[in-house]
Design a protein that fits this description.
Belongs to the RRF family. With 269 residues, the protein is α+β, with helices and mostly antiparallel strands. It has seven helices and six strands. It folds into two domains: 119 residues, Ribosome-recycling factor (Topoisomerase I, Chain A, domain 4), CATH 1.10.132.20; 75 residues, Gyrase A, domain 2 (2-Layer Sandwich).
């Protein structure tokens, strides 16, 4: 009995091992399954590649149709046209911006041309040579009202007194300062017919200077246009020149209107 039990225990692992190992038929089935899986993957890969190639061909045909729809132009041709349009906008915007700046400066200068009464703002437009450059008078001196007809200019540095005196005289304000100790007295002329006439002449001169600057802006714009005219037809260049001229004409007209309003203010107030 003991011997029988022992023999069963001894052969049990062998029986289990024999069950776990595939026989020849099982191996053949596994190999067949592997071959079918490989063939299926290869077929799917070929189908995917054909589909991809077909998709690429369709995209190329669509691109060709688009090119035909836009008259045979290439995409880089369209980009070139966009670049030229962008240059045109930039050039016109630059001219308009510079012209507007000149006009705004003229308005500011006119605002300091007060009639009859002393006001520190009258000297806001005065620029003084200083330290190898220049600076606004209001940054270099204290400007106060002494009385209704007189301004006092107290400079922070005595050595610039002469430069301040000269700057006020040349500022087109019809003012004649007088050096007084460490500062300047600036009498405001009484309002007379002659004074008004001189003020109008000064305003006219300032307007003419602004127009000259506007025309220089036009010249600069034309120079820039010549730099980018490669690839642009003669008709397109003429078109841009006309647009430049329209901007300049409008700016000059605006200056005339501003001068007209200022002259009326001077002669009637």
């Amino acid at each position: 009995m003991n011997g029988l039990i022992h023999s069963r225990l001894f052969f049990a692992p062998l029986n289990l091992l024999s069950l776990s190992l595939p026989n020849s038929n099982t191996k053949q089935k596994i190999q067949q399954n592997q071959q079918r899986m490989f063939a299926s993957k290869k077929k799917n890969k070929k189908v995917g590649k054909k589909a991809k190639n077909k998709k690429d061909e369709e995209e190329e045909e669509e691109e060709q149709e688009v090119e035909e729809d836009i008259g045979g132009l290439k995409w880089n041709d369209i980009n070139t046209e966009k670049e030229e349009e962008e240059k045109e906008r930039i050039d016109l915007a630059s001219i308009e911006s510079k012209s507007n700046s000149i006009i705004e400066k003229l308005k500011k200068e006119y605002s300091t041309m007060r009639i009859g009464r002393a006001n520190p703002a009258i000297l806001d437009s005065v620029i003084v040579p200083y330290g190898g450059g220049s600076a606004p008078l209001k940054d270099l001196a204290q400007i106060v009202v002494k009385d209704s007809q007189t301004l006092l200019v107290r400079v922070h540095e005595e050595e610039i007194l002469q430069a301040v005196d000269k700057a006020i005289r040349s500022a087109n304000l019809n003012l004649n300062p007088m050096i007084d100790n460490k500062g300047l007295k600036v009498p405001i002329p009484k309002v007379t017919t002659e004074y008004r006439e001189n003020m109008v002449k000064t305003a006219s001169k300032m307007a003419e200077n602004a127009k000259i600057k506007i025309r220089l802006v036009r010249q600069d714009g034309l120079k820039e246009l010549k730099k980018i005219k490669t690839g642009i037809s003669a008709d397109e260049i003429k078109g841009l020149e006309k647009k430049f001229q329209l901007v300049i004409d409008k700016s000059v007209k605006d200056i005339d209107e501003i001068l007209k309003a200022k002259s009326k203010e001077i002669t009637t107030n």
